[in-house]
Amino acid sequence: MNGSFRGGVHPPDMKSLSRDLPLQEFLAKGDMVFPLSQHIGKPAKAVVKKNDPVLAGQLIAEADGFVSANVYSSCSGKVKAVEKHRTISGQMLECIIIENDGEYTQADTYDTRRDVDGMTVEEITAAVKDAGIVGLGGAGFPTHVKLMPKDSAAIRYVIVNGAECEPYITCNDQLMRSNADEIVEGTAIVLELFPNAEAVIAIEDNKPEAVAAMQQAVTKARNARISVRALHTKYPQGGERSLITAIAGIDFPVASLPADVGCIVDNVGTVYAIQRAVVYGEPLFKHVMTLTGEAVSHPGNYIIRDGTCVAELVEASGGVSDQLKKVLAGGPMMGFALTSLDVPVVKTTNAITMLAADPVEEAEKEMTACLHCGRCTTVCPQGLLPQMMADASEINDLDRYENKLYGLDCIACGSCTYICPAKRPLTQIFKQTKAEILAIKRAAAGGK
Amino acid sequence: MEKLLNISSGPHVRDRWSTRFIMLIVSASLMPAAVLGIAFHGIHSLFVILASVASAVGTEFIFDKITHRPDTWKDGSAIVTGLLLALTLSPNSKLYLPILGSVFAILVVKCFFGGLGRNFLNPALAARCFLLISFGSDMTDFSVKNGVDAVSSATPTADLLAGKAVNVTRMFLGNTNGIIGTSVIALLIGGLFLWAMDIIHGQICFSVLIGFALFVGLFGGQGFDPRFILAHICGGGVVMGAFFMATDYTTSPVSKLGQLIYGILIGVLGGLFRLFGSAADSFSYSIIIANLFTPLIDMYIIPKPFAYRRKAIEARQALAEAGIESRTEEKKTFLGRIPKPVIALAVITLVSGLALSGVYTMTKDTIDEQKRIAKAMSYKAVCPGAEEFEFPGEVEAWITENGGAVYGTDFGRCYINEAVIGKDAAGDTAGYVVSVTTADGNDGNISLSVGVDEDGVVNGIAFTELNETPGMGMLCGEPAFMGQFEGAAVDRFELLKGGGADEEYEIDAISGSTVTSSAVVNAVNAGLDFINNVMKGGE
């Protein structure tokens, strides 16, 4: 309960590029592409077909099962195709492509307040489910699933994640500064589902304006169950587990869920989307995103529509410098590199980071054998032994990796790789080894 | 966007510290010790350091080229190894020592076992031990070069073990006889700097020092006298070992608990060897032995992730009792906070430590008895006419009073142990025998008995303690050397280093063992002097 977790690293935060730039709406002119899978779980099923006219805010794909999410169009126009298109992860996935008429005619104005006080738990979760809300922190887990744990009465903490510990990213900072009241109202709505919980809005202490804005909004709302906590600035403070350690003071295995230890963690962006959905009936088709990096001419914080082509946004923002080396979806710690800019922004895209230098390329030249210096062990927020895990992986001792070293508890936060003076690609090794072990397990389960 | 973008797995940002940077910092932290070493011991120390570093880096370079490996010589670790080795050598080292040592360290200890991060012994220390075993006398030649003659003198640690007072302040500064990196203050500055930079683990260096201090305090016979303990810590490479050798990443355990156990093991072994072993520079061995325990420690002490530690499990159980169902069962039940092998390891260490000191204590009487018999036999050998030996009261009183102090002024560091008068069957005086110990031997103390007959003719000498270099100093125990003393009616012998002794009082030195020869002649002279001036003078 000391406001922090063990381990962690302090990468240069690089937020000054965009931290004080207010949110601006970006409306693309070109085609919009909506992957059917923008979340964890089964892909949605398309409910429109070629040449169907659509409006912004219209349902175009429907959740397939409980762990799935609806997809809404963010523009008006007509369906051009339902086919495979390259997505932000690099894969070719089934997408609905809409020819944008540029009018952005909406299915609804979404500005009439509904009576929230009288809503039942079922109504609230149904509104969240209908709106297609998923975890906007990056994971994309369908939010309505998270809001319906087995025992709602056992939830002690609702943690609203405004930590934003990834370097470069500032959109949630701006969202908290400009929409604090809505976030607090969204938090109050979530609290309605959990009678015994208190809500903590957790923000890293490198965002004093956001802390102040949220504090003010909480004071105004006079809700004794909500508080604001400024946390140590340390990566991965915004990780679900780190937050629970910092706020609820509890560590739990990766095989368990936060709800198992009485916690629900939602990103501030998600909570804002919940407020929009429950109060105004607005589905999720736009969210905040930071365009940043040394190679981008004009960084900015955007309210971006799902389906927007990354290349178009970059072009419209003022282009990139010749030095562009690498483009990341997300921040440099957990983001992944894009092969092409001709991919659509999805619900979980919280940043496009354009780097002028690639530290990984430089690190590869400096790579040496493992020194066994133990820095990775010191920074691991899970308390794992990365150097031993890497050794076990190297000799393919998967039993030791899993059972002695608890290697599957790696959350792939990248802290060990970041700190390693020998520049070993530890996180990459762990991701691969984990995939390998899970594949073997699946094969074994299938064989029986 | 025609341009090809870089693609790689995350994270896409790296800390600025690299292997080479860490190695450079470690090298830099050794600079104060190196500079003070050169200042105190002279310019030759610089050559030793340069030779060592150059041959370390050169060896790795050549190995890389021959085996077509990536250029690992650039990572700076060879510089650290070379520097560390040089600082543990005598400032008098002939240059073949650092070169041979560095080649051994890099080639045999490091490269043959897979290079950086794969060696199972600290390369610098393993090389030092290799040199100590192979070139004992050259390695422990700490004599102060004074013109042409080497003035033999012991290191402060040797003095300390001989029970003599040492100047702790001088030891702390490092202006004493000993290795190049002998300045404790300089090593402390470098070591604490590394600790502050988080490069070395405090669990190791401080547990080494604490373990050593506790052991010396408990078994050193002088209690926890801070001056005594400090003197021990300041000597014999303890500080160098604790901060720079024991903390070697590759050869120390991974877990904090393991590091503590490892550190204490080094401290205790170091104390054990220091107090009960034969060599003053035994600290190297204690680290090397602890290095060998590291894989064992790492095998059994694997700290659990935070979520699987007792505290976290109990916290979750408390939650479950408060009404939350735990969805997943714990993978494993809690076995006990400390794994059994750790307890076993600790017990083994403790038992072997106690057994060693126990054996020493138990055999001490037997050894003393053996020494007494050896002494009695030596008396008989150097005073053949005597039937029994008498202990003159006044001589015994003199020895009780002055025996602990260096005898005379021009015999080096000689001590009179005992003196007897041999009586023949008729009860008449048959001769005089003195037992002398000199601390000037090359490899420790030399004790001998000198016998003189009634007329002042030397009957001969007999050694009761001689542990010099085999084939060299040990030749003093051969009749060819000892025989030179027999039958000479002189008060004082003189050592000829070049050979060609023809006068009665002249003794040919053992070739290559001037230090030992000179110590023996001095001891004999001290004995003769004692007989003439104290025993006979007392009659």
What distinguishing features does this structure have?
heterodimer; A: 448 residues; alpha/beta; Rossmann fold; 17 strands; B: 539 residues; alpha+beta; 2 domains; 5-stranded antiparallel beta sheet; 19 helices; 9 strands; 52% helix; elongated
Question: Can you give a write-up of this model?
Answer:
The complex is a heterodimer of chains A (448) and B (539). Among the domains of chain A are: 118-280, NADH-ubiquinone oxidoreductase 51kDa subunit (Rossmann fold, 3-Layer(aba) Sandwich); 365-447, no CATH class. In chain A, helix 5 links the parallel strand 10 and strand 11 (226-231). Chain A is 30% helix and 19% strand. In chain A, 59% of the residues are buried. With 448 residues, chain A is α/β, with parallel strands linked by helices. Chain A has helices at residues 121-130, 143-146, 171-178, 180-193, 208-221, 240-247, 268-280, 310-317, 359-366, 375-379, 386-394, 398-404, 415-419, 426-447, and strands spanning 23-26, 32-35, 45-46, 53-54, 59-62, 71-72, 77-86, 92-100, 157-161, 198-204, 226-231, 263-267, 286-292, 300-305, 326-329, 336-337, 351-355. Chain B is of the alpha+beta class and 539 residues long. Chain B folds into two domains: 19-300, Ammonium transporter fold (Orthogonal Bundle); 367-538, no CATH class. Helices cover 52% and strands 11% of the residues of chain B. Chain B contains 19 helices and nine strands. Chain B has helices spanning 19-41, 44-67, 77-87, 96-110, 123-134, 136-139, 156-161, 168-173, 184-196, 202-219, 226-234, 238-245, 256-276, 283-300, 310-321, 340-382, 393-402, 479-482, 514-538; strands spanning 144-146, 149-151, 388-390, 414-423, 429-441, 444-453, 458-466, 494-496, 506-508. Chain B has a five-stranded antiparallel sheet with strand order 3-4-5-6-7, sandwiched between helices. In chain B, strands 1-2 form a two-stranded antiparallel sheet. In chain B, a hairpin with a 4-residue loop joins strand 6 and strand 7 (458-466). In chain B, helix 1 packs antiparallel against helix 2 and helix 1 (19-41) runs antiparallel to helix 9. The model of chain B is unreliable at 146-151 and 324-335 (pLDDT under 50).
